[in-house]
Amino acid sequence: MTIWKTESSAIRWFDRVEPKVPLSRNTHRVAGIACGLCAFLIVGCSSDPPSEIQQIRPTLQEGSDFASNDLARVPVGSSGVTPLVLGTLRTRADIAEAAQKVEAGIVGIDEARAGYYPQLSAGVISGLAGNTENGSRLQVTASQLLYDFGGTARAVSREVLASQGKYMRFLEVVDEELAETVKTYWTMRRYVEQQAIADKQLQTMQQLEKLSQSRSNEGVNSTTDLLEAQRRVQSAETILLQAQLEMANANRRLSRFSGVSGGIADDALGTINLTCEGEKFNDALSPRVQLAALQKAIAEIDLKDAENALFPSVSLEAVADRDIVGSGASGVGVNLKVDSALFSGGAHRSRKVIAVKTAKAADAALEAARQDITLEHDNAIADIKGQRVLIASLEKQADMLDETRELYRRQFVELGNRTIEDVLDIEDEYFRSLRDLAETRINLAVRQVDCVKSSGRLRARLGLDGKFLHGLALSP
Questions:
Q1: Which of 106, 100, 76 is nearest to 88 (CA)?
Q2: What is the pLDDT of residue 438?
Q3: b or e along 362-399 (b: 16 or more beta carbons within 10 Å of the residue's beta carbon)?
């Protein structure tokens, strides 16, 4: 094998420093074997990222499906994702922050895998060594881990799990931001509805004011009735102004959340279906629960590390050194090194106790995450059912009040057995019931968002299956 003839640059450097004291052929050969073995392993140890990481961050190649579906790159309007959702994904800084943490975690895997590779170091050693005189020696050390009872493998596995955990946090942040945007959209829609109702109420009150003015001119109504009608008009104008201000504020908030400026269309969500009744709930779909499960797995690895802390590691070590001040003597050696901590002042025992308690805490945290997400989902379902019942009741009430207001108006105009105040009161009550009905419908839509988010299906409902953001898959 040509590797046995490899001559390291470090050995050639020694020769250049002091050519009067040449190294022997055997010394060259031993050093060449050790350093050549390291060079061979450096070339041969490279491998692809783990499959779990490839699922998180597929390689984005030009012209591939991954690149064409990365929402951070595609032109607006070509992704099949509504601008409200696309804008949120692109502009929210905490989403970008979470994505960068995933990238950092993936690099951490390479750092942990470096334990499998040869290690090369160089330095100058000064001082007394045994019976030798005080001097300075240049030392180059190459080492290769042979066996460490799974320590390096556990370190790699831990970094893989940590990267998956950062990815789950990324998905959780995406869900939180998307839910906030959609709920803010429904808040804006609430005031759109309220404005439409207030505008209709103002028109009705103005009609009644004109009717009261006409009857007052005819001497049928008193001046007090006219003043009351005018007061109701003023009240309706105030309600309309409040709805307009609230709608403008909600629209600005929505623009800030989504990055979409210039106003939001009334149908910004299109035909997206966010209902969740009748679906089987599975807490394992929640990024929060998956993150807790990964943290538990990490704690178990840490516990295994603590239990094996006293186990030795076995490595092959090649050392070449040369006196760079005195005689110029040089030496090369290859050693089999067995290294183990014998005494650490109780640190090992403490580390093991900490690891045991941390593992128990992680197990409790997983159960707590499951309980919390299940409770959120159950509460949302209960609220949705209650609001559906309330909507049905409010619809009946609005229909009844609509019939009553028509009756009161006929009795006021034709029979004269109703006062203008009676008519104005029933109109106020009717429009109040319409506002309550619109409010409850919006509350239902908001709770639907909470329900879908807790079930882990929000991204899929918003059309993000098969899509990527900052190179990361939006569906695990």
A1: 76
A2: 95
A3: beebbeebbebbeebbeebbebbeebeebbeebeebbe
